[in-house]
Structure prediction request, 168 residues.
Amino acid sequence: MTAPVVPSIDQLQVLPTPVPPFSYVPQTWGWLVLLLVVVFISALWGIRRWRRWQQDRYRREALEQLGYLQQSLSDSGQRLGALRALPALLKRVALSMVDAPAVQSLSGDQWQAFLNQRAKTPLPENFAGQLFTLAYAPDTALAGIAEQEVTALFALSKQWIEAHHVAV
Prediction:
């Protein structure tokens, strides 16, 4: 009798990968059109969001500066400078707007009207007057401003910077 043949490991072969039973390529041109439309709309949306983000850079920088000013209020040595810088910050924001009108010469009622016109919610009637006081009052008058009033003024300023309307 002959001995049985034992298979050797050298005889093993790699099996070919099977072909999938279906193709990943869309079978109709409609799916391709739909894909292109979705990609196009997504690209337009992305470009629009990027442009808006670029246009709102002045707003982000102003909010960062406002946060720095609010932190400076707690230090008695920097409080006066922070109070004096608030009106200038709001004026710079207004000048940095995309449709920047001629706001550099506005003051008093005209400045108040401009701020109200661009605000989402109405501002107090004396808001521009308070800003004028912060900018031009003597140091002793600024030292006498109540903490609640300063907090409210900074909160209104932050709200205006975040939500003011800009024509696009």
